[in-house]
Write a structure and sequence with these properties.
The protein has 219 residues and is of the alpha+beta class. Helix content is 55%, strand content 23%.
Length: 219
């Protein structure tokens, strides 16, 4: 009896620990002084850069490269295809089979249903993510003044709607959103820098992923 109580306490402690860890906020930081961002993960103030296009890449021997290529060639498990909802569209033969059995119209209907489903799934995951900060600064400039003006219009047309989208996931958009787009006809090339900080908790993301997997499997 005592052993069972101890096991139960240990299991409860493990569940509490896993739940506590899954609720720790994780920040994804995208920042750049150009257009290609560096990606940094921050957990409890501890930051780790996970992507930087300018960072030196470790050298791999030929055997390792071949092993990686062999892994890439392995087919995706059927259950994973089912979860992703792509079992009828994952290859040319599967697509041809679907067309023969169901016809082009129904196959296209199923294909667009999968696309629609993914859009809904992405929305579910995004709901579990909050935007902590979005800063975007750009000085539009070109050797040709007309091109500079066109670049300014394009930048405004892209960035402001994007910022409005991010603001829907902010608690205080007036403080967390900073945009500055200007045009300088004396400069010869544009300058850009931005920073986007998104926060999520693994627990809520996992719940969203489980809902997605459940919906796809049932479908």
């Amino acid at each position: 009896m005592i052993v069972l109580i101890i096991i139960g306490i240990v299991l409860l402690c493990l569940i509490a620990l896993i739940l506590g860890v899954s609720l720790i906020p994780i920040d994804i930081i995208l920042q750049s002084e150009g257009f290609i961002p560096t990606v940094t993960v921050s957990v409890l103030g501890i930051k780790k850069e996970v992507y930087n296009k300018d960072a030196p890449k470790p050298e791999k021997d030929e055997d390792q490269d071949e092993d990686d290529q062999e892994k890439d060639k392995k087919p995706m498990p059927k259950f994973l295809k089912k979860i992703l909802g792509i079992e009828n569209f994952d290859s040319k033969s599967a697509l041809s089979k679907s067309v023969k059995e169901k016809g082009v119209a129904e196959t296209l209907s199923e294909f667009f249903a999968v696309i629609k489903n993914y859009i809904e799934n992405i929305k579910q995951i995004i709901k579990s993510v909050s935007v902590r900060y979005f800063r975007f600064n750009m000085v539009c400039a070109e050797e040709d003044s007309a091109k500079a003006a066109l670049l300014y219009g394009t930048a405004c047309a892209v960035v402001y709607p994007l910022a409005a989208y991010f603001s829907a996931y902010m608690k205080h958009p007036d403080k967390q959103l900073q945009l500055n787009i200007s045009c300088d006809y004396e400069l010869k090339s544009p300058t850009t820098n931005y920073e986007l900080v998104m926060r999520f908790r693994i627990f809520w993301v996992l719940l969203a992923v489980l809902r997605i997997a459940k919906n796809n499997v049932i479908h």
